Amino acid sequence: MNQWRSWSAVAVIGALALTGCGREEGSEAGPEGGGPIDEAPATGEVTIWAMGNEGEVLDQLAADFETENPDVTVNVTPVPWESAHDRIATSIAGGETPDIAMLGTTWVGEFAATGALEPTPEGLVDEGDFFEGSWGTAVVDDVAYGVPWYVDTRALYYRTDLAEAAGVEAPTTWDEFKTFTEGMQAEGAEAGISLPPGGFDSWQYLAPFVWQEGGDIMNEDGTEFTFETPEWKAAFEYYASFFAEGISDPVRLETGEIEQKFISGDVGSFFSGPFHIGLLEEQGGEGFADQFDVAMVPGSDARTSFTGGGNLAVFNDSENRDASWKFVRWLSEPETQIAWYGISTTMPSVQAAYEDPTFADDPNLSVFADQLADSKAPPAIPTWAQVSAVIDQELEKVTRGDTTVDEALAAIQGQADSIGTGL
């Protein structure tokens, strides 16, 4: 999950990265991990910080781990998302970290750069068990720090009644998507698609169009930003066309607004994660589940979507390293992840879990499972918060008609080059 952060926290992280997290001057700050983790039962106390709903309900799952490991106690500290980034940064600066912390996927690069995270022990889990895009969120400069715990990706929600009336089916290409959204407008929707016109985290909606064109945020070796490219230009122009042609509302709709406009038929479609299934069924009332459907995102050369979620990382200063990694490993087992979905409704990061009927037999959840096989995350670099903020700002200028796509891309490229990667 990519959550709010303050610039003060980013400044703290930058300072920590430069000082190597309190190492003596002249010491090497390369990634150093301990030995492998054995199969013996976990013992002692483990403290974990978890955010949002996951933090509120994790103790229910942790109780099962304690049953299987009678000599261990797991202490779960719920942390609100809005304060989590600052709290972790402060704990690193003060040398008072928990054993484990749940990290938003775009935070891993920042915190790994401080030297506070222990690299994932060799053999703890099998990288191939995870979705490629999800595993990539834990990797910084070819080193994995922790493991993906749960994943999130975006698919297309659309009103089936409006689509049927317009005579259109779920789109697979960019051209079909434009026709699809125009058709729903013709049947009464004020907006055929609701897209963020800019502002915080709008890049998450724009970047998939770039990936679908075969472009990326950085070059293959991760040394240069690649914003001034034909792929970025094509994605920017296509995205902006929905606003220029009046297909998407120029006003940004937040969670709470989008559901009501979708239920009323004012919005014909939008991109979101699996959590919206339950929200729409609950708020739409009896029978509304038959009025919407979910489909993979339409694409160009590919149908790539954005992937996020939550990762689990162990700190170098953990007072119970082995038990901490054993808990992380247990949380990564398919059976545990299936049980976790039943408690939290967060999607498993391990591919084998999707063979369970819970996902395989659900037409909407199975779409998200398919989408996860073609999903991608931004680069795990310490400066991503600053770089992505520039994209958000320039996208808003383009959708308002205040600047051209070429001018926006030049501005993004220039500022990103100035900010650097932080590695």
What is the CATH class name of the domain at 7-19 and 39-153 and 307-376? Alpha Beta
Indicate the radius of gyration in whole angstroms.
Answer: 22 Å
> In sequence order, what are the helices and strands, one letter per element?
HEHEHEHHEEEEHHHHHEHEEHHEHHEHH
What gross morphology would you assign?
globular
Total DSSP E strands? 12
CATH superfamily of the domain at 7-19 and 39-153 and 307-376: Periplasmic binding protein-like II
> What share of the residues lie within helices?
40-55%
Distance, first to last CA: 22 Å
Mean pLDDT, to the nearest integer, reads 91
Strand content: 5-15%
CATH architecture of the domain at 7-19 and 39-153 and 307-376: 3-Layer(aba) Sandwich
Low-confidence stretches: 1-30
What can you tell me about this protein's structure?
By secondary structure, the protein is of the alpha/beta class. It has a domain at 7-19 and 39-153 and 307-376: 3-Layer(aba) Sandwich (D-Maltodextrin-Binding Protein, domain 2), CATH 3.40.190.10. Helices cover 43% and strands 14% of the residues. It is built from 17 helices and twelve strands. The protein has helices spanning 7-19, 52-68, 81-94, 108-112, 132-136, 160-166, 174-186, 203-212, 230-244, 258-264, 275-284, 321-331, 334-344, 357-360, 363-372, 384-400, 405-419, and strands at residues 44-51, 72-79, 100-104, 139-140, 143-144, 147-153, 155-159, 269-272, 292-295, 305-314, 347-348, 375-376. Strand 1 (44-51), helix 2 (52-68) and strand 2 (72-79) form a beta-alpha-beta unit. The longest helix is centred in the first third of the chain and has 17 residues, at 52-68.
